[in-house]
């Protein structure tokens, strides 16, 4: 008579936390918000994780430690996660130095000390004050923007957007010590990468270089499934605005040889998109779900604006209109 099959071993959430290095809070959040794993429940209602769940959570932690947002990797299969980890390792070894600009009271010092021991990072500008960093970056672009805040306030989020726009849309890491989860969700949904301080210099180097590898990999052709995931995750921040309100206002009053008055209509469309983009970013929310929704609307509108700005730019070139 054949021996009965032994039931699969399961782990409590505390055991999973010890095995993976994740906190129990993070494990629950990844389950609830991103459906990273779906553990069974015991008769008493406690979570029961399988060895496969533990393995997947360990790989997710490795990728997020390297700078990948959890929203971009949570729904990957085991094979896809293994390929992603291998791809990140390969690209990080072959990429050139990543240029970085850093702002904060401790992060620039930590990064400068850590960068002295590696050829993968080149610190181009650093300052404790946003105005000084803005001046240092005038007319320059960097691969990565690293911004540190003691408190992740709405004012801090506005500074993030201002510096991001000035630098032409680099990869942007936001390090903060205290803040509302709604504000963190807002930045994450817009494609910014958030890190909770304290962090060490080596941890910053690992996050920056791994995320640079992720960006390089994203420039390669995607299969339909991964491309679909990328669209759903909505990871990339919207492009900086190309036209000011004054330029759009002037365009509304410029005569055009195009009988359908396309320049006027495009100016109106872009003004409306820019207004809604600002409105959705500042809209009040009562919980994390609303914050994520408004962040998505803000980012989606920004991408729509970018498409229409490209159309307007082409039209202005054809029409030889200067604004």
Question: Please, could you describe this protein's structure?
Answer:
With 323 residues, this protein is an alpha/beta fold. The protein folds into 3 domains: 13-90, Orthogonal Bundle (Multidrug-efflux Transporter Regulator, Chain: A, Domain 2), CATH 1.10.1660; 96-218, Rossmann fold (3-Layer(aba) Sandwich); 245-319. Helix content is 56%, strand content 12%. α5 packs across α10 (201-218), α9 packs parallel to α14 and α12 packs antiparallel against α13. The longest helix is centred in the last third of the chain and has 32 residues, at 288-319.
Question: How would you briefly describe this protein structure?
Answer:
Helix 3 packs parallel to helix 5 (78-94). This protein has a five-stranded parallel β-sheet, with helices on both faces. A two-stranded antiparallel sheet has the order 1-2.
**Based on the structure given, which CATH architecture of the largest domain is correct?**
3-Layer(aba) Sandwich
Q: Please list the strands of the largest sheet in the order they lie side by side.
A: 4-3-5-6-7
SSE order in H/E notation?
HHEEHHHEHEHEHEHEHHHHH
CATH class value of the largest domain: Alpha Beta
Provide the helix percentage: 55-70%
Main structural class: alpha/beta
Q: Please work out how many helical segments DSSP would assign.
A: 14
Report the C-alpha radius of gyration, rounded: 23 Å
SSE layout and pairings?
Blueprint: H1 13-20, H2 24-34, E1 40-41, E2 47-48, H3 51-65, H4 70-73, H5 78-94, E3 98-103, H6 107-115, E4 121-127, H7 130-136, E5 144-152, H8 154-166, E6 171-179, H9 181-189, E7 193-196, H10 201-218, H11 224-233, H12 245-252, H13 262-282, H14 288-319
Parallel strand pairs: 3-4, 3-5, 5-6, 6-7
Antiparallel strand pairs: 1-2
Helix pairs in contact: 3-5, 5-10, 6-10, 9-14, 12-13, 13-14
């Amino acid at each position: 008579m054949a021996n009965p099959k032994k039931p699969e071993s399961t782990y409590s959430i505390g055991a999973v936390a010890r095995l993976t290095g994740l906190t129990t809070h993070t494990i629950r959040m990844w389950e609830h918000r991103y459906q990273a794993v779906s553990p069974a429940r015991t008769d008493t209602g406690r979570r029961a994780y399988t060895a496969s769940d533990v393995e997947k959570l360990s790989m997710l932690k490795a990728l997020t430690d390297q700078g990948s947002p959890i929203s971009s990797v949570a729904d990957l299969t085991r094979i896809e996660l293994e390929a992603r980890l291998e791809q990140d390792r390969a690209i990080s070894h072959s990429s050139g130095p990543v240029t970085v600009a850093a702002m904060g009271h401790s992060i620039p010092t930590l990064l400068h000390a850590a960068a002295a021991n590696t050829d993968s990072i080149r610190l181009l500008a650093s300052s404790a004050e946003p105005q000084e960093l803005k001046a240092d970056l005038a007319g320059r672009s960097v691969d990565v923007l690293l911004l540190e805040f003691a408190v992740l306030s709405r004012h801090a989020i506005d500074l993030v957007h201002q510096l991001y726009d000035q630098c032409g849309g680099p990869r942007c890491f936001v390090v903060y010590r205290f803040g509302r989860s709604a504000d963190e969700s807002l930045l994450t949904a817009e494609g910014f990468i958030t890190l909770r301080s304290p962090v060490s210099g080596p941890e910053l180097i690992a996050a920056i270089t791994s995320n640079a590898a992720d960006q390089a990999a994203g420039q390669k052709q995607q299969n339909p499934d991964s491309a679909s995931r990328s669209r759903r995750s909505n990871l990339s921040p919207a492009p900086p605005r190309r036209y000011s309100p004054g330029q759009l206002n002037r365009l509304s009053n410029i005569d055009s040889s195009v009988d359908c008055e396309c320049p006027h209509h495009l100016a109106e469309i872009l003004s409306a998109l820019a207004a809604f983009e600002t409105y959705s970013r500042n809209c009040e929310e009562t919980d994390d779900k609303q914050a994520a929704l408004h962040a998505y609307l803000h980012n989606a509108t920004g991408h729509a604006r970018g498409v229409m700005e490209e159309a307007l730019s082409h039209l202005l070139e054809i029409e030889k209109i200067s604004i």
